[in-house]
What does this fold into?
Amino acid sequence: MSAKYVSNWYLLLPIYSNILSHATIKFRDGHKTEVYNNNFLEFYEDIYTRYLKDHGFKYDIQGKNVIVRTPEGLLLKLPKPPYSFVLDEIFIMTVYGKPDLTDRVVIDIGSSIGDTALFFANLGANEIHCYEIDKSLSYLSEENVKLNNLQNKIQIYNEAASIDSLRKLISQEKLKNVFMKIDCEGCEVDILDSLDTDIIKHINDIVLEYHYHVEPLINRLKSLGFNVRRKKEILFASKASNIV
It folds into this structure.
């Protein structure tokens, strides 16, 4: 990717290796930026912005805000960079898969700025419940939901997902055939360990990013009645039985 967009890309290796402290990086479109060996954030954003634009994403600068329009027409206000690489993971690499969610319910644990929720809504989900413990990200996700007029489908909870909150949500909303996504920087262990039969009978698919030892997670999912496959740092689990 660097070779594609940077004319003097060969300077990046000595910076990464701490041989050089910094260098002026020249992009093939004429843009220049200083890259330091202790801070690659601006460079990462510059690279991925160009990459996403080549894949049909449009960037609009509105004051201090960056608004991105995906090829599907979804609008996203981004937090401070780097963040475009996350959009690459979700919308181009589709690290969470691209399931048919038509008329299904999604519980999104670790929903960040609402990008995955919008992705799932575009796949047909008609009800999405999002848990995001970071207040600033939760606020931004609410803005992004409003930008796309999806307040009737997407609910944002500025709290950590717990066994009690999940049980209450599933019971009160009478949720069934749930697709659950978990990406919460390590909380996946506690969540899987806390799931009981009263909750799990309503969940038919789980996709999660793991951060620690994977085998205990796989074994736990299998014990809960799921078939499991692994792709890099993502586990995909689907019920072996018929949909409840």
Remarks:
- The longest strand covers residues 203-209.
- Residues 94-239 form a domain with the Rossmann fold fold (CATH 3.40.50.150).
- The mean pLDDT is 94.
- Residues 41-54 form the longest helix (14 residues).
